[in-house]
Amino acid sequence: MEKLVIEGGRSLYGSVAISGAKNAALPLIAATLLAPGTHVLRNVPDLRDTRTILSLIGELGAVWSREGSTLFIDCSDISYCEVSYDLVKTMRASVLVLGPLLSRLGRAKVSLPGGCAIGERPINFHINGFEKLGVTCNLEHGYVEAIRGDKLKGNTIYFDFPSVTGTENLLMAAVRAEGTTILKNAAREPEIGNLIDMLVNMGADIEGRGSDQITIHGVSRLRSSETDIIPDRIETGTYLIAVAAAGGDTKLTNCEPKHLPALLGKLSEAGAEISIEQSSISIRMDPEKRDGLTGVDIKTMVYPGYPTDLQAQFMALMTLSSGICLIKETIFENRFMHVGELRRMGARIQTEGHSAVVTGCGPAGLSGARVMATDLRASSSLVVAGLAASGRTEISRIYHLERGYENLVSKLGGLGARVWKENE
Ligand code: UD1
Asked: Which ligand 1 atom is the nearest neighbour of the CA of 22?
């Protein structure tokens, strides 16, 4: 196993290009199962999770090749419909093939994801929605076996909570259902807009992109399509927070500033200088003036609120402030796994239920330590802390980071950080 080593305390200068969004690539790759022919997806990040979903659709019969960041996926011959526990346990988003397989083959058998480091994460909204479309779902031996009759039947589906992958799964199931499906209280994350764009390119008839009510008029045929994956807003946010924490002057290119309304506001409030162009964001935090970093409260919310996937990184930043702040997690029940590790680096954080109070200890407050990655975004908060801390930080279990950050070591190295991988 490999660990990440960071010699901290160096400011970050230069420019870094943002990759395509992992959380858009996963549903868009799953959506290729909906129609025969060769689909083209551009700007696809090469990550552990995208490789997992590609091997998954490969097992179902898809044939794919990659040229740079462009994927060619031929789904002419999809005949298998079972996804094993081994794949789902490494990546919960594997359940995203349920919707496309039900649409294309009429049945699917997918292992139920168990709980994970950040919470229970059930898929009851997905299953309830499929049942509304006329699917029979049986749960047995840890698998959900879903079977439709002749056709899926359009219906109105209300989400008790705007689930991101739930909305995506139901969208993919409904595009070829008979009649009209209305998704109410649907999630509005930009990745869902990206999926809708791809489905429309394939011939789907969808209204309400970007709103919490999506109307899908079922069509009888879909075709293969070409679609660009949107820039990764969580990777963008992580680099912005890293520069705010370590100090420096950095330009992030190939990104979409409109997808980060909450974070950009919070960073400015904390004292970072931000300037925005159409597809780039520059951030400046004078290393000499980092003691001016203000404590700023955040509360995670569904989009366009502050993203839960950037909560851990912002907490790492706040440990360096000169104030006190309150961080509230409202999306997942157990998303403070990074707190214990940040404390090992000198952070002063108290948690109670879903809230954490961070007492900033100033820009020189963190010192490098050996810490452990527990999940993808918790790990990136340790990278942020390690970059700002004095001395050497060693982060073990970096496979979590490799699930979601393309070329992390070379991108940070390009900004002047001293970061490398070593065998444990
Ligand atoms: C997606 C993202 C993940 C992000 C999360 C919230 C992908 C691949 N992953 O995860 O990075 O952190 O959105 O922005 O896009 N819930 C239920 N029943 C369900 C579904 C969800 O109770 O059937 C609950 C979850 O346990 C959680 C909340 O709803 O508490 C939100 O989950 P959801 O939006 O579904 O997250 P994911 O789609 O799994």
From this structure: 8
Checking if the pLDDT of 221 tops 80, the result is yes
Give the pLDDT confidence score for residue 32 in this predicted structure.
98
Question: Ligand 1: distance of its center to the CA of 26 in Å?
Answer: 14
Q: What is the rounded CA–CA span in Å between residue 314 and residue 201?
A: 37
Ligand 1 atom closest to the Cα of residue 163 is: 34
State which ligand 1 atom lies nearest to the alpha carbon of 333.
30
> What pTM does this model have?
0.97
> What sign does the CA torsion over 101, 103, 108, 110 have?
positive
Q: How distant, in Å, are the alpha carbons of 207, 371, 400 from that of 4?
A: 45, 10, 11
Q: What single-letter DSSP state applies at residue 61?
A: T
Say whether 361 is catalytic: no
Distance between CA 39 and CA 281 in Å, rounded? 31
Name the residue with the closest Cα to ligand 1, atom 22: 122
Domains, in order of start, for the chain: 2-19+231-423 (3.65.10.10), 22-228 (3.65.10.10)
Helices 190-201 and 22-31, packing angle to 10 deg: 30
Q: Average pLDDT in the 365-378 region?
A: 92
Which tokens is 327 given? 């961080």
Measured by CA distance, the residue closest to atom 26 of ligand 1 is: 121
Note the residue count of the chain: 424
Residue 92 identity (one-letter amino acid):
R
- 163 Cα to the center of ligand 1, angstroms: 5
Task: Give residue for tokens 């349920």.
Answer: 98
Q: How far is the CA of 150 from the centre of ligand 1 (A)?
A: 30
Residues with CB under 6 A from ligand 1: 23, 26, 93, 119-126, 161, 163-166, 187, 308-309, 331-332
Mean pLDDT of 354-372: 94
Tell me the two tokens of residue 363: 């820009």
